[in-house]
Specification:
Shape of chain B: elongated
Helix content of chain B: 25-40%
Number of strands of chain B: 12
Number of helices of chain B: 2
Helix content of chain A: over 70%
Distance between the termini of chain B: 139 Å
CATH architecture of the largest domain in chain B: Beta Barrel
Largest sheet of chain A: none
Strand order of the largest sheet of chain B: 1-2-5-4-3-12
CATH topology of the largest domain in chain B: Thrombin, subunit H
CATH class of the largest domain in chain B: Mainly Beta
Radius of gyration of chain A: 15 Å
Order of helices and strands of chain A: HHHHHH
Shape of chain A: globular
Largest sheet of chain B: 6 strands, antiparallel, barrel
Largest interface: A-B, 30 and 28 residues
Number of helices of chain A: 6
Oligomer: heterodimer
Number of domains of chain B: 2
Strand content of chain A: under 5%
Chain lengths: ~160, ~270
């Protein structure tokens, strides 16, 4: 269990590095959410008792890289995790297209939830970046799911 | 005709020919049939030497091509190296320019104790506008420390650790800075919108405001020193049914291109 958690945190720090340093350096207004794909992977392959604590801790780590009100980022990702856990019986999560759609949808949903709490007004000009970010998040989600599945297989064997 | 007379005749003809040729002058011989001789010799020479020349050409060109290929590869490698070096030099030049601007800024603002820092990360979300810099409490950064760059106000410190600080940029929806319009001294609050622009709020619709007016910090609240540039008025919307005008500003600092920043130390008089 600890080896899996350590590996997951290792991946988490890599995706944080991508999200807050590499991607903004390349394109300042673009944000790609790698964590959504990771959560989808956790839902599919990792037991709830291990996946849920990881998501809470990971969201707390992510909070350190955001100006959002303390607790908002964990709240958002707990909502994402639980809602995905609920709908996993309705959708076939192993399907790549489902993962892409979920990545896209949840990226938009997270922005929507954040906006509800913030009331930011100047986001109209960012809609193109938002859509590009959502598409890239959708595209990267299956890769993140695959990484989690590989980890699970390695530690299971 | 005897044998001796034949020899005498030939000698005579030869002497006559020599005499005639000598009498033609130095270069006139080329206009005579001699040129045909030369042309003939030229053709002959080429026919004789053609195989040797051909072999020579093949050998020389082959050797040359082999050398050229090696030389080309070598030159390409050197060119790539030079290009990389050029890029590094260009980056060093722009970095030098940035440091020079920062140094000039520091020189012209000797009344401030400035602590330089560089950007480490940007906010993980698209909505919030925060950044993390590579200086923390160890470098005398503290909560509410004003952050500026040579263009104007960047934001303020909202979180400090030993080696890093989190900065709330003025474009963040949670940012609010007491400000005034430089020319008319009209006071207001500059608030972030979450986008590229910021808004100047609580300015009455009846006030005289113009596009392009410069907005500076007012020094109220004691966080930001007075007179730091925030932005320029970009858009004004006045509604007779509203008490306050909707004013949008373009920040002086391009938030997408922040690299080097300064924290302003505590020993600064913030108000008049």
């Amino acid at each position: 269990m600890w080896r899996l958690q350590t590996s997951l945190f290792g991946i988490l720090f890599l995706i944080i590095f991508m999200e807050v340093s590499i991607i903004p350096f390349i394109w300042s207004d673009l944000r790609v959410n790698f964590f959504i794909g990771m959560i989808i992977g956790l839902i599919i392959y990792i037991p709830f008792s291990q996946g849920f604590p990881f998501v809470i801790l990971a969201a707390l780590v992510l909070q350190a890289f955001s100006g959002a009100r303390i607790g908002l980022i964990p709240l958002i990702y707990i909502i994402v995790f639980l809602s995905l856990d609920v709908i996993k019986s309705l959708l076939y999560f192993e399907n790549v297209y489902t993962q892409i759609a979920l990545g896209f949808f949840y990226y938009i949903a997270i922005i929507g939830i954040s906006l509800t709490f913030t009331g930011a007004a100047g986001l109209e000009e960012k809609i193109p970046y938002l859509l590009i970010g959502a598409m890239l998040t959708g595209a990267i989600s299956p890769a993140m799911v695959y990484i989690v599945s590989r980890l699970q297989k390695i530690y299971e064997s | 005709m005897g044998r001796s007379s034949t020899r005498a005749f030939l000698l005579f003809i030869a002497a006559a020919v020599i005499l005639v040729l000598i009498s033609l002058g130095q270069y006139s011989s080329s206009s005579f049939g001699i040129k045909f001789v030369r042309e003939g010799y030229f053709v002959f020479e080429r026919i004789i030497t053609a195989p040797f020349t051909l072999i020579g050409h093949i050998w020389r060109d082959y050797v040359f091509l082999v050398n050229a290929r090696e030389e080309n590869t070598d030159l390409k490698k050197r060119l790539d190296e030079m290009r990389v070096q050029g890029m590094i030099l260009e980056e060093l030049r722009s970095e030098n320019k940035r440091f020079r601007t920062m140094l000039d800024f520091k020189e012209t603002h000797k009344e401030f104790t400035l602590y330089p820092a560089s950007l480490l990360t940007q906010d993980i979300t698209l909505i919030y506008k925060t950044a993390v810099v590579d200086k923390g409490s160890r470098s005398r950064f503290f909560i509410d420390m004003p952050i500026v760059n040579p263009d104007g106000v960047v934001g303020k410190v909202v979180g400090v650790s030993f080696n890093t600080s989190q900065i709330l940029l003025i474009t963040d929806p949670n940012s609010a800075i007491p400000a005034l319009i430089e020319s008319t001294r009209i006071k207001g609050i500059v608030k972030g919108t979450g986008g590229e622009s910021v808004s100047l709020e609580y300015v009455r619709s009846s006030e005289d405001i113009h596009i392009g007016d410069k907005v500076i910090t007012s020094g109220l609240l004691g966080i930001f020193p007075k007179g730091l540039a925030i932005g320029y008025v970009r858009d004004i919307r006045k509604d007779e049914h509203k008490i306050f005008a909707d004013i949008l500003l373009t920040p002086c600092v391009d938030m997408q291109r922040i690299e080097g920043i300064f924290g302003i130390g505590r020993d600064v008089a913030t108000t008049d």
